[in-house]
Specification:
elongated; mainly alpha; 169 residues
Length: 169
């Protein structure tokens, strides 16, 4: 009987150290639970915000495509890619719109170079304005190029298809 009583008996210091260890383990378990809950709540908030931003971007894109007239034409596709209409591009560079697929390319390049250099960020200009000027020039060049290609196609259709045959001499 003496042996079993000794095994049940615990000194007071060991009992209190054991109790402190158990309390620390319990508080660590609560800390893990709190951290896990915080991560889960944060992930849910971030996921909802991301989903809402995606929905808004999708709706904005659909609205932009539906608001452009003749959405099947190449001009509307060019508007979507550059973000400028031909009228806006001509106003930015202060040139006349191309008439019949031809524009004064020298005037466009002269205005482009002058405005592009004037808005150089190294000289205290605006990068935003500089990029708008660049996009305006590209838009006018694109419009002229498309008109020239269309004129070439029409001329080829008018005269008929004549393949280029290379004969050995």
């Amino acid at each position: 009987m003496g042996v079993s009583q000794r095994s049940r008996w615990k000194p007071k210091e060991l009992t209190s150290a054991y109790a402190i260890t158990q309390r620390e383990n319990a508080s660590l378990g609560e800390a893990h639970r709190f951290i896990t809950q915080a991560v889960i709540v944060g992930a849910r908030v971030f996921g909802r915000a991301f989903a809402e931003a995606y929905r808004q971007a999708s709706a904005s894109s659909k609205y932009a495509q539906s608001s452009i007239p003749n959405s099947g034409s190449s001009t509307s596709k060019n508007f979507i890619s550059s973000g400028l209409t031909l009228d806006e591009a001509c106003k930015i560079l202060n040139v006349k719109p191309p008439q019949g697929g031809s524009a004064n390319v020298e005037e466009v390049m002269d205005r482009f170079k002058r405005l592009f250099d004037a808005n150089d960020p190294a000289k205290g200009g605006s990068f935003y304005l500089q990029s708008k000027i660049l996009r305006a020039r590209e838009r006018i060049e694109l419009e002229v190029r498309e008109a020239q290609e269309a004129a070439e196609r029409e001329a080829e259709i008018k005269e008929g298809w004549k393949p280029k045959v290379w004969k050995d001499r």
